[in-house]
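FORM 7B - TANDEM STRUCTURE REPORT

SECTION 1: FIRST PROTEIN
SEQUENCE AND TOKENS:
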Amino acid sequence: MLERIQKENDIKELNREELPILAEEIREFLIEKISRTGGHLASNLGVVELTMAMHRVFTLPQDKIIWDVGHQAYTHKILTGRKDGFDDLRKYGGMSGFPKRAESDCDAFDTGHSSTSISAGLGYVMARDLRGENYSVVSVIGDGSMTGGMAYEALNNAASIKKNFIIVLNDNEMSISRNVGGMSQYLDKLRTADFYTGLKKGITSALHRIPVAGDSMIDHIRKTKSSIKQLVVPGMFFEDMGVTYLGPIEGHDIDMLCQALQEAKKVEGPVLLHVLTKKGKGYEPAEKEPAKFHGTGPYEIATGEPVSKSSKDSYTKVFSKVMCDIGQKNPNVVAITAAMADGAGLAEFGKRYPKRFFDVGIAEAHAVTFAAGLAAGGMKPVFAVYSSFLQRGFDQIIHDVSLQKLPVVFAIDRAGLVGSDGETHQGIFDLSYLGAIPNMTVMSPKNRWEFADMIRFAVDFDAPIALRYPRGSAYDGFEEYRAPVIYGKSEMIFEESDIAIISVGHMFEEAVHTRELLKKEGFACTLVNGRFVKPIDEEMIRKLAKNHKLIVTIEENVQNGGYGERVLEFVSRNSLDVTVLTLALPDDYIEHGSVDVLRREVKLDAVSMKKRIAEKYRILPV
């Protein structure tokens, strides 16, 4: 069956009996391909039938399917003729793991973060109606993403529209970690409302049997606010918001899904179709541990175990260990995550100190202000969050934390290049946007030992502070260089002359290699560990300016507003007699690929940096 899918809408040519076979083949294909490339497995296995049903009912690219987050769009890519691209999935120059408009006309909207699809879909609907066009718009959103406030802002806005807009709620009881909060509990009740769903089917069937008048009665009930479900389930949340509710229905029954989607197309105004799916369906390891297989590296198909395991602790693991130790000693320390307890390293803290652990769901803006309230109330909150997701709480960091100088710790994981997830997940803007905020302190460690010291420093610090660290194994070199962390002070590693390299955070290992290459060519080269990005160590820069011709800054952040530009500004403002070369990421979005490949592409690898530094030094005046 899979070989018959060569382009969009080919699935319409299959008969109903062939669809279950296609679903099985798609799952086998995904399990096999992702075992080699890595990727998002569990979420994709859970929406195979749902995706097939949407592609049967709607016509692409005329109709628009908008995926929230987008990591569950692999089947969508298969059904739109991109099956061959899976050999290079998430590799540099290969197919993205998320929808991309530049990749296919069938990808209606670029996504990567959560809770956005209803807003984007509503925008499409309004554009469609203003332009007098005629196509369907379907926004697919998971129950995990429904913990994000943006989804409710969009629902509130959508209630006013008069023409069809379909929202598919993919309910698998998971985001990455298990869902939490009131909406999760509400959906739990809907899932078990057998009495309601049975009664609704019975009433609808009975009305269908009434000659002539039956269908019109059903249409009338469907259009009226006081519908059957309002009578049977008082206070229906979505209906009360002005959104017609259909469901919940079985999300792995293609016939039922197609029928429900056809019904949804008939609704005038916004309609939410509640679909129940199982994350990881069809692959036992993923069904048992859906969080583990949310995003996975290559694995053995038979067991689900990773092909390779690092013997080194990751920065996230180090953070987890230190947080547990701090939690034991300091009863005022509390930990916050936005649906990333495992990914951000707080799961163990949550097990040991459950009353001081808060998973707020996918709600980063709320998490920041919630942390501010905790701090104002005398607690010491640590919010562990991925760099690219903290962007969603930017206003709250300014207005609710830094303005009041509240001692909130931002533990910023996945900073810098993260690799295969691409543009939407690269953590390459945090030094710029955090550095622009008054009262904010920003640190970044060179290795695991300094990282542990910085966590403790941050928890003891009595003002807003951010600690930035990367994905992957923690660098364990230079353990002997472990000077105490002193506010605003950098660390001299090797002191020579002529060229001075100041490295920011996890670029230290690459900076060490760069220095070694320069030494082989006969250059004298100082190496400084920057430590503090804000404030910069002005005393150290003045010292370097006295006996060096060139200061080089190295950071894995966009150049615009980064550490290097702060150093450059300080040197210029103080008329220091030294040239500054800033090595950073381009002012652009960085596509997917391995970190090593991406660094070579943007010339932030040791070989490229050595060349750029040597060329710059040679043209300096004698």
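SECTION 2: SECOND PROTEIN
SEQUENCE AND TOKENS:
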Amino acid sequence: MELGIAVPVGSTGHLGHYRGGEGVPRSSALREESSALWRLLATHAGHHFTALYEGAERWRELYVGDLGPDVVGGDADLDIPFEDFLYGWREGDQAGLSVAGHGVLRCLECGAGLWLGKAYGAGPDEVSFFHAGAGAGGGRGNSANVPVNRALWRFLAEHVMHELSVGVNGEAPAAVIGGTDGPSFEDYVAGWPG
């Protein structure tokens, strides 16, 4: 998925946030991009992945000849538009679904974790969406819950090029962001420019 343009923080070399093109707000404020990101996590529950810089060696390894990977939200001919990726997705609609467990996004390199909320779906490997609670999103899901959504975008910015996993009911780090023993979502994103 296309996350946007990585914006560094001062001279630290760390990413501050992602933003769209010139004049486009930070990616965490864009509803369609945020919804697609949350759907991607639900679709890949139980999988490992890495947020890559375009042009990084691991990114170039995904190319076969001149053809790169299909990217959700990308601008190449074979990429998947956000609206196509989101078509028919019912984030927050709990009708006919049960709680399959609780989700955590883990950085396998740092040991950090972000609580994703209850996993609604047919089972731990068939998650329809994650729901971290009412907050600003009400029953609509995490993409509409501002502090939860911003926390996800910050976590991805801080752990770019790290191996990550989306786990349901697996082992979680001791102090998960948004969990009972870690910082709240609000504290985690306080003062963050993204």
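SECTION 3: OBSERVATIONS ON SECOND PROTEIN
Residues 4 and 188 are 21 Å apart (CA to CA).
The longest helix spans residues 31-43.

SECTION 4: SIGNATURE
Preparer initials: ____
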